Amino acid sequence: MNAKNLFKLGVVGLYGMATLAMTLALDISPAAAHGERSQEPFLRMRTNQWYDMKWGPETTKVNDLASMTGKFHLAEDWPRAVGKPTRAFFNVGSPSPV
């Protein structure tokens, strides 16, 4: 083996070591496409608690106005899956005949 071939093998070896070092140094995280990192439903839904609620009137017809008053408490341990409450949409769901 002459010096030229030794030099080529040394350069190829250095390239291989550099490639291996860069592969190990890069932070490669696993794909989380199927909910591996999602929280349980009881944690995701724990956003705010309503209490001292009053609403009226007791019965309404379609498109009648109703009012709700009360207090709410934002959860101290806010779920990771839910954005911070800078703007909110209020939706009321109640049991009713279908």
Automatic annotation (TrEMBL):
* Signal peptide stretch: 1-33
User: What is the superkingdom listed in this entry's lineage?
Assistant: Bacteria
**What keywords sit in the KW lines?**
Monooxygenase, Oxidoreductase, Signal
Record-linked Pfam families: Monooxygenase_B
Provide a Gene Ontology MF annotation, just one. Answer: monooxygenase activity
* Protein's UniProt name: Ammonia monooxygenase subunit B1
Q: Which organism is it from?
A: Nitrosospira sp. Np39-19
Q: Gene behind this chain?
A: amoB1
